[in-house]
Amino acid sequence: MAFLIIVVTFYIDYRKHSDQVEQIYNLLNKSKLLKIEDYQAWQNLGFWGFGFRAMILSKLLRGKRIKITGSRWLEPQSCKDILSKFDVSWINAYNGKVKIATILFLLLLILASVKDI
Fold this sequence. Notes:
Layout: H1 2-30, H2 36-44, H3 47-61, E1 66-67, E2 73-74, H4 76-83, H5 90-116
Antiparallel strand pairs: 1-2
Helix pairs in contact: 1-3, 1-5, 2-3, 3-5
C-alpha cells in the first residue's frame, strides 16, 4: 500500500512540476548547454521520463557533473544562473521519495523471493 501511495505522489509531482522542468530544459537548450536530442527521449516519455529529468536537475543542484555523451558534460556551474530563476526546492523532497520508493521496492522484492523459498 505504501508503494502505491508513493507512486501516486510521484504522479502528483509530475502534474504539478512538469511545466517548470520543461521550462528549465528549454532554457538549457537555448543557452546551448543541452541539445534537444539530449533529453527529447525522456521528454517524450511523459510521466516516466519526468523522474529522470528531475533526477538530473537534482544532481546539478548538488553540484555534480552530468555526462551527456562520451565527450560532453553538463557542468553545474554553467547551469546555476538558469536554475536560480526557478523555485526548485521540491526536488529535494522528490529525491527523498525516490530513495524511499527504491527501498520499499527492494523490500518487496526480497519478501517475494523469500516467500518462494
